[in-house]
Amino acid sequence: MLRRFLRRPSRRVLGWLSVVPVTVEGIWLLTGCAALETVDYYWQTAAGQFDLLSRARSIHDVIDQSDDVALKLRLQQIERMRVFASRELGLPSNGSYTRYTDLGRPFVTWTVFATPELSLTPRTWCFPIAGCVAYRGYFRESDATSEASRLTADGNDVYIGHVPAYSTLGYFDNPILSSFVRWPETDVARLIFHELAHQLIYVPGDTVFNESYAVTVERAGLERWLAHEHEPELMAQFERTERTRAEFYALVQDARARLAAIYASKASAAQKRKQKEQVFADMQRAYLAAKAKDPGLTGYEGWFSEKPNNARIAALALYTDRVPAFRELLREQGGDLSRFYARVRELGALPKARRDAMLDDYQRRAADAAPASASADRSPPA
After folding, report:
1. How far apart are CA 195 and CA 218, in angstroms?
2. Cβ distance 93 to 238 under 8 Å?
3. In this structure, are residues 251 and 283 in contact, taking their beta carbons and an 8 Å threshold?
């Protein structure tokens, strides 16, 4: 049945084949090994998605039949989150996150990012409908490792991300997965609001736009969810986490700026390699010093424990680069999410050069407002 289902993939199926995690313009011409490799990639992606859907169970059935009290309580909470997302955040009301799949593994996919050795520009892959994206996702870790090895052999910096969830952009109803269901409440809410945001608005071929917008929605949604649930302790924890994240991003952004200057310079390749290693060494030292002052940064030890490279930096930038611009856009809309979504759609419909110019403007306004925002962040929570 699966083979019959995949024999002639429709545009509906092709649309989500690349959307892993955490997404052609023009005409595709595939020949020889490239065509076979692409078919293999489609097959593993479609088979993995089919497996998730075929094993999904209604959360009501799980709640009624499971002996796992913690799981039952969390599914009930997610059900409330799901209703809140549609009623209060204006996110899609559909079957997503109304079913549960036990994966039997810690992650749903493994995502490969790659950059040239002396560049922060990520490699991209293009797919029908979803456009060009800066990653490839695999349902088997071994497949991701093989792709990473191939890219490394070609001289790239490579990073494999461990993905707990992803969006099919509404083509299918995303199930709740065992890979994230037991996370802390704030992290689960973030994830659900983020992935539903992708279903609401998605611009083919612009990963940074899509992810920065979704990150903005997840934060705004989480703040409102915690206020709705009257959880002042969790709200205070959320605010501490946001400050810690800002410290982490600042460390990485400093390294990224230095690397960009090095790669754009007229230095020789050998000199650039030496300077690159120095930047990463300095970033590690800066992290250790910052962690000594703020124990909250201990949560980023996993990220720093693996040898940093361009791909790790570039992958993080995909999710954070335009967040200040989108937060400023939301602020200028008075926090009204419906007006915010309308404005985001308008931006998404623009040619990319024009869209980026307008986001640059919002980014500058956000920077100008930063001192006032920082003062507000230091105020005690209401």
Report:
1. 9
2. no
3. yes
Per-residue pLDDT at 268 exceeds 60 = yes
pLDDT over 90, % of the chain: 70
The 3-state DSSP composition of the chain as helix, strand, coil percent (nearest 5) reads: 65, 10, 30
Task: Assess contact for 21 and 191: CB atoms under 8 A.
Answer: no
Integer Cα distance of 137 and 130 in angstroms: 14
State the virtual CA torsion across 87, 92, 97, 98 in degrees, nearest 10.
70
Q: What is the DSSP letter of 189?
A: H
Per DSSP, the chain holds a count of helices (H) and strands (E) of: 15, 8
Q: Which two tokens stand for residue 363?
A: 């980014």
Which one, of 341, 308, 323, lies nearest residue 157 by Cα?
308
Reduced to 3 states, what is the DSSP secondary structure of residue 275?
A: helix
Side-chain-side CA neighbours of 52 within 13 Å: the count stands at 27
Cis peptide before 21 (omega within 30 of 0): yes
pLDDT in tens, 324-350: 999 999 999 999 999 999 999 999 999
